[in-house]
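Encode chain A's predicted structure.
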Amino acid sequence: MTPLVAGAVLAAAVTHASWNAIAHRITDKLVGFTLILAGGVLIGLLLAPFTAFPAARAWPYLLVSAAVHIVYVLLLMTSFRLGDFGQAYPIARGSAPLVVTVFAAVFAHEVPGTWGAAGIVLCCTGLTGVALWGLRGHRPQWAAIGAALATGLSIASYTVIDGLGVRASGSPLGYTGWLMAVQGVAIPAYAVCFRWGRASVAVLRPFAALGLLGAALSVCAYGLVLWAQTRAELAPVAALRESSIIVGAAIGALFFKERFGAPRIAAAGLLVVGIGLMLHTG
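Encoded structure for chain A:
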């Protein structure tokens, strides 16, 4: 992984944590995700005429990924509704990299070397520390934890699917645009047709600006990751991207008044060491 690719993934981590915080900030999760997904559809359609159309062999990956992304959003909405942002977000993101490593080895034939494997393990250890520290002294919210772990499995699934798809597409930006356009239709359509009807505009208007900002951050975050997956192996990209957990924990402390604490700082140190080991393989 080159410094340029690592920088792109770290930028994606910050923008990803930011749009997730926006989604959590909007109290009605269906409103938040409707605006973010609908905004993603709009951005994807605006990108499409100015980018190369994804190659035919990429479309099976893109369509399957779109379906997995819908499941991911539903699970993420559930975990945000049931648990704290500083807890649900780290567990969802932190559980994904090891699964991606296994999936990438099986489906993409990418087996990490010694340094890469050590870096991934250290990153996951640090991320797990960030995720589990908040459970100390509190009764575990098992429903929220279960939803967050299921979210992590869906993240690992679409990460590998999209890694293979974007490589086959011949156009990372085109793949990003069409993926956003396809995946973002279902939940807004359900909300408008079956939940709000004619009241949709009134329901969405108070949060429109915040939701569209979240949409722009979401497209930027995933576009950077997809580009990185054409330049580096899937597992290190997935592990480095989940440094967004540190950003998410900081956002939880600063904006949602959730504790950060020394254990999470120590876990962040492990994450930094793990990133250094992964970059050593490049």
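The chain has 14 helices and no strands.
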